[in-house]
Known about the structure:
The complex is a heterotrimer of chains A (about 775), B (about 150) and C (about 160).
Chain A: H1 15-19, E1 35-41, E2 47-53, H2 55-59, E3 63-68, H3 69-72, E4 93-94, E5 106-107, E6 113-119, H4 122-129, E7 133-138, H5 145-148, E8 164-172, H6 175-181, E9 184-192, E10 204-210, E11 215-220, H7 225-236, E12 243-246, H8 263-275, E13 279-282, H9 285-291, E14 298-306, E15 312-324, H10 332-340, E16 350-358, H11 372-390, H12 394-401, E17 410-415, E18 421-424, H13 429-440, H14 442-455, E19 459-470, E20 477-483, E21 489-493, H15 502-514, E22 521-524, H16 542-569, E23 576-579, E24 582-585, E25 588-594, H17 595-601, E26 617-623, E27 630-641, E28 648-658, H18 665-685, E29 715-720, H19 742-753, E30 763-764, H20 768-781
Parallel strand pairs in A: 1-13, 9-30, 11-12, 15-16, 21-22, 28-29
Antiparallel strand pairs in A: 1-6, 2-5, 2-7, 3-6, 4-8, 8-16, 9-14, 10-11, 10-13, 14-15, 17-18, 19-27, 20-21, 20-26, 23-24, 24-25, 27-28
Helix pairs in contact in A: 7-8, 10-11, 11-19, 15-16, 18-19
Chain B: E1 2-9, H1 13-20, H2 23-29, E2 33-40, E3 43-52, E4 55-69, E5 73-82, E6 85-98, E7 102-114, H3 116-149
Antiparallel strand pairs in B: 1-7, 2-3, 3-4, 4-5, 5-6, 6-7
Helix pairs in contact in B: 1-3, 2-3
Chain C: E1 5-11, E2 14-20, H1 26-33, E3 52-55, E4 58-61, E5 74-76, H2 89-96, H3 106-119, H4 125-131, H5 143-157
Parallel strand pairs in C: 1-5
Antiparallel strand pairs in C: 1-2, 3-4, 3-5
Amino acid sequence: MDRKLIGKRVVRNEDPRLLTGHAQFVDDVQLPGMLHAAFLRSEYAHARLLKVDVSKARQHKGVVAVFTAEDMGKDWQPGPPLVSPPPTVKDVVFHSRRQVPLAKDKVRHAGEAIAVVIAESRYIAEDAVEEIEVEYEPLPVVLDLEKALEPGSPLVHDDLDSNLAARLYQKKGDYEAARQQADVIVKRRIYIERGAAAAMENRGIVAHWDAQSEHLTIWDTTQAPIPIRNGTAARLGLSEHQVRVIAPYIGGGFGPKIMMFYPEEMVIPWAAMKLNRPVKWIEDRRENFYATTQERGQIHDVEMALTRDGRVLGLKDDFLHDTGAYDPYGLTIPLNTQSHNMGGYDIRNYSSEFKVVFTNRIIATPVRGAGRPHGIFVIERMMDAAARELGMDPVELRKRNLIPPDAFPYEHQIIDQAFAPLILDSGNYKAVVDKALEMIGYEKFIKEEQPRLRREGKYVGIGVVPFIETTGVGPYEGARVTVEASGKVNVATGIGTQGQGHFTSFAQVVAEQLGVKVSDVRIVTGDTSEFHWGTGTFASRGAVVAGNAVYAAAKSVRQKVLKLASKVLEAPEEELELGDGMVRVADIPQKAISLGELAVLANPLRGAVEAGTEPGLESTSYYGPQYGATAFGTHAMILEVDPETMMIKIRRYVVAEDCGTVLNPLILEGQIHGGVSMGLGNAYYEKLHMDENGQLLNASFADYLLVSSTEMPHIEVAHLETPSPLNELGAKGVGEAGAIPVPALFAQALENAFQERKLEILEMPLSPNRLFELLKDRQAVE
Amino acid sequence: MKIEGEYLFDGPREEVWKLVRDPEVLATCVPGIQTVNKVNDSEFTGEIALKIGPLGGTFGGRVTVSNEVAPESCTLTVEGSGKIGFLKGIGHVVLSEQPGSKTLMKYSGEAQIGGKVASVGQRLFESVSKGMVKQGLDKLNEILKQRSAA
Amino acid sequence: MQSTFDLTITVNGTRYERSVEPRMLLSDFLRHELGLTGTHVGCEHGVCGACSVLMDGQPIRSCLTFAVQAHGHEITTVEGLGTRDNLHPIQQAFQEAHGLQCGFCTPGILTTVKAFLEQNPNPSEEEIREALSGNLCRCTGYQHIIEAVQLAAEKMRK
């Protein structure tokens, strides 16, 4: 395949608009007569709603309407399930409980929406929200995952007989037999929590019902405009063709913006139709902490069986997963954890059961990593614990167990988040690990630098963590490529873009096929009127799935171009060349025609279009992968800890990654850097503090600490390319890769820095305070 | 959040008990109290203006005295709710005679805040509530001294 | 009844006279009254820096400033830096170095960088990180932003 543009560091098409403040984000939408909404949200994590009195709020000057669950009448319905129910695997349990537009009778998490005020301005709407009187009957709060499953625990959902939302068991081989044969058994309890996605742009939605044309237009900060369109049309009794959903420029997604049918997404379009005026709701940052989904914690009880020479015979991992008050996202996160708690290792015996638990917290849905960081944290902690037990170098232990290159495709015999068999398609894992070791200077550090620094009284540690990332899952995406009369190319696809550069990377794919400038390819994403079929941007699948659809459509248009040009230029197709927006006959440059002219000829005003062909130079193609491609990477870091303040300084950070064919290295590196910054937050700075009453205590950036420019190290990235056999571009996804191994890497490096104190880290996130406590506990033990 | 401490009053236990057990007196001692309504001998309602960190607002509150064992101990319950959130506090108070006509009060209890004020003010809540308790007890002590002087 | 204030303010060189409520935030005034939606609001409590604009050449948080506090002052927003066909060297540098992904935090960074480079035309990497520590970005991990600022400094020194 030609590599003129694919793989090049092309600057982005979308930047001039973004840089000059001319890119439209949802809150930039202004419509005549537009009203503004503000929500009343529950102050209690668990309570019965005895009374909701909106009468004073309705009287407030400038208020047009106040709605409660009661006011919605028969239009009040919980959101639809977002993923299919699990297959009927033995003993599977799944109770689907979905979020509601406005709470009725009971609130199940602090921040749950109870009523909405719609007024002439957001300022007035917020004033009126304060005049709504609610009588709550507080109920005992369910927060602790283990206590929640004990008999007699208060119930988040009264119609169930426990807080168990789901249970799934998977196995491979025979763990018990493996255990019998092992020389060493390592057992640990591991806690890992994540946090808020905290995209810089909060959520928002504008809905406009045009009663004359009977058409609903919605601007939404969603990662999945097509499913939102389909579901909204169904809820409101409209045809899909009467609804247009636009996800314009989105200020960061990271997962929570693909949670669909948030209460606001169910209420605002309904309200716009009811009031016959456009309605806008924009979330504020505090609401984002309460009303936008997060990813949270798991408790793992893990056991690993090994031989004396470091072969892992088997792994057993039983864990609890916190889903919050509802579970619209099904089992996606814990299934991803199961897909990753064997890492990239050749582990033949496996037993894993997870239980998903309802709690009185906001819903947990995927946040960059989506359960993968939990799985990698577990396997990598176990590897380090085993290495200590065996007295072996931790990198050596890993190398002994990595899946070798000739074992691909490697079948894990368990199912993944799409309920398809987990198959790792391709990879050259050892080469990537070796690259990272070389970049960080592993041997030299361990043998020379570390001992020297230790003698100087410094605590400096090294970490090396390999990991897999399942990416590029189906079901499918589509794209339409059209050459216009101007000679420029228009491309439409159904996914949305939240900053990952689709406007450029897809343009590179098309430009290479059609011989035009990257800047002459206009990509439209996130507008359901431009493309009708698709799913969304999640699971590191945008470039792989939509990119391959774009590629297929571009190739098809290229064929049409060649076929028509061959007729027009009276030369065989093999002698034609595409470049500079022209089609030329090789060696006879005068015999040429521009793509624009060709496009006009392809759409005749007279004559006949041949049966079985289509007018124009346009093609629509779809791509659906057999299964998701699996990427691989290794991060390595050298970090120094101040033994008094516990503040850290990352001296070096390197990444070796293999995501198959790279479309644009500039964009790829940006994704890695950004992922690492989120991973760093998950490791040492970000933690959602909730008190025993389910009150979130740090719902602002003053107290929920995002990594800033002074915490981030400089990151060196090296690419290796093992193309995926699953798609023509050979691409694998990489959007989440930066974040996945970081907590595990941190734990390893900190333990290495404090190895003489025999520090062991079995929890995430940490913080300077927590590290201090852990070291003090170690001292007490000694 | 736990609240506990001690306070030494400049007066005999009988006198301190009378004051502690009188919700109307307690009302005037709560910092920020604005209006007071007696419901009965053991209960009063009122409005408190409170500022915790960047958030300020009025709380409609209720103070109740219960579990009385005169002149030794009782339980005080404070509940308030307002636009910026809600608060609940429950404290057990034990009085013991001290030499020199003084009384030692030992108090221990729990305080809880929720709503907006919890998510941005929690860090400050501990110091604010300790400050409020001290201010309140100082005021109570002033009243005690005034009454015994009279 | 809310009283209003007669505000006079210059934004990107244009003088505006408007009647505003005293409690209207400068960020809302710029975005919704004047339609200059390039300035973005990320947190409304002064931490993220997305709303940064220049008041008389110095960076301020427009989410923590009332419009009336800007009465009689000169405001520069991202729209005052350059146009799509004529990017300011700082904007050019950001494109070349891939210093933005979703672009939401970018306008606040651009105004901050403009003021910074005017004070410190030849900054070290550490100085740049320090200067940008009040602007949060969730997408880039800051590395390409730092490179963009270094490139911008170079372009502006020429």
